[in-house]
Amino acid sequence: MIDLIIDQRRKDLGGFEVGRVLPFHARRMVGPFIFFDHMGPAEFAPGFPRTVDVRPHPHIGLSTLSYLFEGSMTHRDSVGSEIVIRPGEVNWMTAGSGITHSERFEDLREHGGRMDGIQTWLALPTEQEEIDPRFSHHEGDNELPFYESGGLKARLVAGEAYGAKASVPVFSPTFYVHWEMETGTRADLPAEYSERAAYVAKGSVEVAGQTLKVGQMAVFAPGDTIVFEALEPSTVMLLGGEPLGPRFIEWNFVSSSKDRLEQAKADWRGGRMKLPDLDNGEFIPLPEPAPPANPMS
């Protein structure tokens, strides 16, 4: 029933930590989900430095989905979008042939507070990897269906599940669900999609006789209904969909073609994806290739 349990790996992004879950060496993707970062949780005092912000950087071949439990972020991008995302809302950015964006913590810098959320990347189907870039923002129960019963609060963040459909314009069969569970609450994940996983963002749950703790993702075998029971107040993200086939990922780029990744890197280094007026031109540089291994070492 549980194929694999993945523990988050904490990474310092220069001011706050993220817990990286996907990609993982034993499991690169779950449905279209190819990247999964738990941002924080982190506490910020007013006036923290701007070096904590995520400066402009590029993407191709994917959509990014930002979703917060606490805090706020200001999104800006090269198609002209500028919006603050708050808890329970979705920022959906499709890079396609290429986009540049930044994420700034302007409200938190002014007032201080807590940041906690998930950012994930979804690979695009091969025939849509080069579509025009675009952005949309989604909020409210009409766009992100909400359900509450007993000790369970559930929001459909993207895709289709439990007879509901979110307004987020996904490109392949996908589901992404946010559960808030009180202690002792039981809930099911049906066998609707061939690839499914669950990530515990807070608390702990029992699944198939095993305990999943905060920072762990369980990847499930297809074909069975998965039953969860909250061992304490818990936040669980359910995700998955249908597989897209192999993808290459390097830095901020995703593609079914290695040659396309090389072209994107050359375009970024050559300034062909940069807009000089986006956040004062403070762009993140492409990392230099690692030196070859010393055969004598």
From TrEMBL:
<dbReference type="Pfam" id="PF02678">
    <property type="entry name" value="Pirin"/>
</dbReference>
<feature type="binding site">
    <location>
        <position position="103"/>
    </location>
    <ligand>
        <name>Fe cation</name>
    </ligand>
</feature>
<keyword id="KW-0479">Metal-binding</keyword>
<feature type="binding site">
    <location>
        <position position="59"/>
    </location>
    <ligand>
        <name>Fe cation</name>
    </ligand>
</feature>
<dbReference type="Pfam" id="PF05726">
    <property type="entry name" value="Pirin_C"/>
</dbReference>
<dbReference type="InterPro" id="IPR003829">
    <property type="entry name" value="Pirin_N_dom"/>
</dbReference>
<feature type="binding site">
    <location>
        <position position="57"/>
    </location>
    <ligand>
        <name>Fe cation</name>
    </ligand>
</feature>
<dbReference type="GO" id="GO:0046872">
    <property type="term" value="F:metal ion binding"/>
</dbReference>
<dbReference type="InterPro" id="IPR008778">
    <property type="entry name" value="Pirin_C_dom"/>
</dbReference>
<comment type="similarity">
    <text>Belongs to the pirin family.</text>
</comment>
<protein>
    <recommendedName>
        <fullName>Pirin</fullName>
    </recommendedName>
</protein>
<feature type="domain" description="Pirin C-terminal">
    <location>
        <begin position="176"/>
        <end position="273"/>
    </location>
</feature>
<feature type="domain" description="Pirin N-terminal">
    <location>
        <begin position="16"/>
        <end position="122"/>
    </location>
</feature>
<dbReference type="InterPro" id="IPR014710">
    <property type="entry name" value="RmlC-like_jellyroll"/>
</dbReference>
<keyword id="KW-0408">Iron</keyword>
<dbReference type="InterPro" id="IPR012093">
    <property type="entry name" value="Pirin"/>
</dbReference>
<dbReference type="InterPro" id="IPR011051">
    <property type="entry name" value="RmlC_Cupin_sf"/>
</dbReference>
<feature type="binding site">
    <location>
        <position position="101"/>
    </location>
    <ligand>
        <name>Fe cation</name>
    </ligand>
</feature>
